[in-house]
Amino acid sequence: MSRPRALGKGLGALIPQLEEEELKNTMEIPIREIELNPFQPRRTFDQDSLNELAESIKLHGILQPLVVRKTDHRYQLIAGERRLRASKLAGLESVPVVIKDLDDRAVMEIALVENLQREDLNPIEEAEAYKKLIEEFSLTQEEVAKAVGKSRTAITNTLRLLNLPAEVQQQVMENKITMGHARALLGLESAEQQLYLSQKIINEHLSVRKTEELVRLINSSPDVSRETSTEVKKEARSQQSQLDPNLQAIVDDMTRLFGTKVRIKNSGSRGRIEIEYYSQEELERITEILLSL
To answer: What is the C-alpha separation between 41 and 37, in angstroms, rounded?
Structure first.
């Protein structure tokens, strides 16, 4: 079966290598001797899916061995937590494994890549995994991007989701709002505004495009607040001097290009462009994009 997405060189090639060695070096070890991976980025496992896998394991056994590494007196799981959990549900006492000698960084990267390949992580879990790689192993965003086969812009945009209030992050994790909605909310100045609009998205089933329009309205009208009615918002919109549609299209294009908030302040034939950044590394990324144009 083909994988959902390709990975970069280096780490991306490690998973296939593990699979090729499985049939040759598989051994059975007791489940009680296997510790869970402390670097597992995935927080939630669907119980119905685990039950289905457990039934399959009862009928056919484990078709793909787990990957572990040896600790002092036990084994630590590297890849295959769903299979391990389902094996316990199926009543197995031992499971087939391949033993690898890997350091903490490689274990964490493999756990992250395994979940990305299977599209098992929600955007917040993905962002937290990237953050952990950066903080625990002193990696740059560029190094993380190469490890997981994504662009640095994609890594930056995902990491920015962690700037949202915890309540909004939870809504993303529960699929109440999409990553597109969450990225639009990052354009708001305050957590209060983000919380208000995220709830409005859920209550009124707003599209990402409509959310982006409301973000622009709130930013252009500081007096718009939680108590502001729809009619007042419409009036505020009509009273505000709006950007020329051509300039607004430029703002939208630049926002997508730089992956951050962009403003054009226009006054007749003059004006200025403002591009926001939230770290030195993000400033360097934006600078590189500008210099490459």
So the answer is: 9
Catalytic status, residue 33: no
**Cα separation of 35 and 193, whole Å?**
43
Q: Are 7 and 143 in contact (CB under 8 A)?
A: no
Cα-trace Rg, the chain: 24
Boundaries of every domain in the chain: 11-156, 165-240, 254-293
Q: Give residue-wise pLDDT tens across range 222-264.
A: 555 444 434 334 544 443 455 677 887 888 788 778 777 777 8
Closest CA to 62 of 45, 36, 86: 86
Name the class of domain 11-156: alpha beta
Rounded CA gap, 281 and 287, in Å? 10
3-state secondary structure 54-89: HHHHHHHCCCCCEEEEECCCCEEEEECHHHHHHHHH
Phi first, then psi, for residue 174 (nearest 5°) are: -90, 10
Q: How confident is the model over 76-120, as pLDDT tens digits?
A: 988 888 889 899 999 999 999 888 888 888 887 777 777 666 656
Across 155-177, b (16+ Cβ under 10 Å) vs e yields bbbbbbbeebeeebbebbbeeeb
Token code pair at residue 246: 């051509």
Read off the tokens for 261.
């908030």
Contact indicator for 82, 53 with CB cutoff of 8 Å: yes
C-alpha to C-alpha distances, 238 to 16, 94, 152, 233, nearest whole angstrom: 58, 69, 39, 9
User: How far is 255 from 239, CA to CA, in rounded Å?
Assistant: 25
pLDDT at residue number 242: 58
Catalytic residue among 81, 109, 126, 128: 81
